[in-house]
Structures are given as C-alpha cells and as structure tokens.
C-alpha cells in the first residue's frame, strides 16, 4: 500500500476527520446493542446460558466477515465498504429489537456481527493509509473515537430508555444519528484503499503477520478478561457488593479511552517502541497488582493500570500490520483483525476453563504472563 505525494495532499484534515467519524460510528452502533440485551432476553424468554450461546453469534458473524472485507476494500475501496456496513447496521439494529424468536435473533446477531466486523476492518485499513500520509502517529486517537462512540451509544440509549422511550424508539434515534454521521463522513472516506484488487478472498496470515496477529490475540484476550471476569473477581475474591461490581470494568474503560485519546501525542513524543514496551508492561503489572494484593482498592487500581497500559498497544500493532511488506496491507489487517478478535471470542471460555481447573486468580495470572510476551516483542514489532 503506497501513498504518493499527490495523494498525501488529498489525505489531510478532512480525511482524518472522516476516519475519526468512522471509528465513532462503529463504537456507537456496537454499544447501542448493550442496553437492549435485557429486553431481548425477556422478549425471547431464554435463560442466561442460552443467551450466552446466542451472543456468540456476534463473534461468529464478525469472524466470518473480516477475512472477506480485506478483499472488498481492495476491490471497491474503504468508502463503499464502510457505507455498506453502516447501512447494514442501521437496517439490523431495529431487527434486534423486533425479533421474538431464538432463530430470528440468532440471524439478526450474525448480521450485526458481520457488519461490525466489516466496518472494523475497513476503517482500520483507512486509518493506516491516512496515518501514513500524515507522517505521524494517529492510530491511537482513531481508536479513542471508537471508545467515545461506545460511551455515547450505551449512555445515549440508556438515557433515552430512562426518559421513558421504548426500545424501538430509542434504537431508531440511534439509527438516525448513525445515518447522519455516515452522510457527513462519506465525502472524505477513501475511494481507493491502495490494496490488491485482484488478490484472493483470504490469505492465511504467515510469518511476521501471523506473529502480530497473535500479539493482538493476547491484547484482546486481556481486554476480554476485563469485560467478562473483572466483576466476578471483585465480588467473589474481593468481597465487593454486586451493585458495585461493574466499577472495575468502568474504570478500565475510562482509563483506556483517556489513554487512546492522548495516545498519539505520547507515541509521537516517546516513539512506538517505548509505548509498546511500557504499555504492555504496565498492563501486566496492573493485572498482577489486582490479583496479588487482597484488597478491592488495589484491584480497582490494577484494572485502571491495565486500561492505561493496553490503551495504545493494539493501535501500534495495527500500524505495524499495515506497514509490513510480507502481505498486501488490506489483507494483512483483515488477517490480524480476525486472529485478534478470536481472542475476544475464545478468551472467556479459555479463562473459564483454566479457572475451573485451577482458580480465577491463576487464570488471570496466565493473562498477565502473556502480556509479558508482548513486552518482550516490542523491539521486534517496532524495528
């Protein structure tokens, strides 16, 4: 993926802002679903176990769509793929409110996951091109807008529901917002990705690209462990009340969002190597602190450190995937994203299995040890 001097002049502030909007839209759309989960569970009439299996459809849909998206962006450009995925989300979100059968909801969640996976890969490909044209680090800030979009989606829909609107009304307002933002962003989304237009549908990641993908897997595994296991850890091992159990993930998310919004400044000042090294090390230390000291306060501080440390690691890994020369950048990012997201999909089950065999403390200690693998790889990734 090469960017000429003439192209660089076109990829200025408007393209950067369009990229930020794409990340914000993805976060907004994904988080809109979160407050709707209890309504879906009640409407279909399923237990927690069945709901967990149903929610796996989101991950399955994403994993299925991500490899294909690398080819689509190469052939049609980032703009068409982002707009296609965005429109699909706008069509599907109301279906997530209306479906009243397990099969119907499963199909809607598959489509939802596929659309999220498509926009995720396409916006990261656009981000690599725009970042390269700017000759400075921008990836952390882009990912920060995804986090801000997530806060806006979950908070906005929750507020609308609290004000008395029904789930469908709240969702339609979110859909209108997404469509408006897509329209604003569309003019400056990239019509060409610079990728291989005639390449295969999916190239199995190999060598260096596979290694970057595995590092992404570890980071997504760590993020998933915060989402799925921090509350249980705080209630069962630190004696916190169930009403306060979400505080650990909330602090992690806030720390990660702040870290990403300021990450480009930090990366430009310190360099990718230092940020990758110290960030992954900070995340490992934070997780070790949370499990080593028998104190709820220490655990909360530890989870915050995980958020601070992990905030800019994945953006740096995505930049590394886009800048390598082993594979076309569009296919490399699709491959790395697919391998990385497998950490979110398989992570909860793996941690649960280790916890069942040993303990949740040992399972999280294993995650901390894996984070040190990322630390040890910092020099090689940023060479």
Under the CATH scheme, the architecture of the largest domain is Up-down Bundle
Give the domain tally.
2
CATH topology of the largest domain: Growth Hormone, Chain: A
Judging from the principal axes of the Cα atoms, what is the shape?
globular
- Report on the biggest sheet: none
Secondary-structure-derived class: mainly alpha
Summed up, the helix count is: 16
- Highest-level CATH class of the largest domain: Mainly Alpha
SSE order: HHHHHHHHHHHHHHHH
What is the arithmetic mean of pLDDT?
A: 86
- Computed Rg: 20 Å
How many runs of DSSP E, i.e. beta strands? 0
Uncertain runs are: 1-9
> Helix coverage percent of residues?
over 70%
Proportion of beta-strand residues = under 5%
Q: Write out the CATH superfamily name of the largest domain.
A: MFS general substrate transporter like domains
Measured distance between first and last alpha carbons: 19 Å
Structural account:
The protein has 383 residues and is mostly helical. It has 2 domains: 182 residues, Growth Hormone, Chain: A (Up-down Bundle), CATH 1.20.1250.20; 175 residues, Up-down Bundle (Growth Hormone, Chain: A), CATH 1.20.1250.20. The protein is built from 16 helices and no strands. It is globular, with a radius of gyration of 20 Å. The two termini are 19 Å apart.
């Amino acid at each position: 993926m090469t960017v000429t001097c003439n192209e660089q002049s076109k990829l200025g502030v408007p393209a950067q802002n369009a990229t930020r909007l794409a990340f914000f839209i993805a976060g907004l759309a994904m988080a809109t679903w979160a407050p709707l989960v209890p309504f879906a569970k009640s409407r279909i009439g399923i237990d927690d176990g069945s709901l967990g299996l149903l929610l796996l459809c989101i991950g399955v849909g994403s994993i299925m769509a991500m490899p294909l998206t690398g080819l689509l962006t190469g052939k049609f450009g980032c703009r068409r793929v982002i707009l296609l995925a965005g429109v699909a989300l706008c069509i599907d979100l109301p279906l997530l409110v209306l479906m009243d059968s397990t099969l119907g909801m499963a199909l809607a969640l598959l489509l939802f996951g596929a659309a999220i996976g498509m926009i995720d890969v396409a916006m990261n490909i656009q981000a690599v091109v725009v970042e390269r044209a700017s000759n400075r680090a921008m990836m952390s800030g882009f990912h920060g807008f995804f986090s801000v979009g997530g806060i806006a989606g979950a908070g906005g829909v929750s507020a609308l529901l609290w004000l008395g609107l029904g789930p469908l009304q709240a969702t339609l307002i979110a859909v209108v917002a997404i469509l408006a933002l897509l329209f604003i962003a569309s003019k400056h989304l990239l019509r060409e990705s610079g990728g291989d237009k005639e390449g295969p549908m999916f190239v199995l990641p190999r060598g260096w690209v596979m290694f970057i993908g595995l590092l992404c897997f570890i980071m997504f595994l760590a993020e998933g462990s915060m989402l799925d296991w921090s509350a249980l850890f705080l209630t069962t091992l630190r004696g916190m009340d169930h009403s306060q159990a979400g505080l650990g993930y909330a602090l992690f998310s806030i720390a990660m969002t702040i870290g990403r919004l300021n990450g480009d400044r930090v990366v430009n000042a310190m360099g990718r190597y230092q940020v990758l090294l110290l960030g992954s090390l900070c995340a490992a230390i934070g997780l070790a602190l949370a499990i080593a000291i028998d104190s709820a306060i220490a655990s909360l501080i530890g989870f915050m450190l995980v958020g601070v440390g992990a905030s800019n690691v994945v953006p740096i890994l995505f930049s590394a995937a886009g800048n390598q020369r082993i594979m076309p950048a569009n296919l490399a990012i699709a491959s790395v994203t697919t391998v990385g997201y497998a950490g979110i999909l398989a992570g909860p089950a793996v941690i649960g299995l280790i916890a069942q065999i040993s303990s949740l403390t040992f399972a999280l200690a294993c995650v901390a040890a894996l984070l040190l693998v990322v630390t040890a790889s910092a020099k090689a990734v940023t060479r």
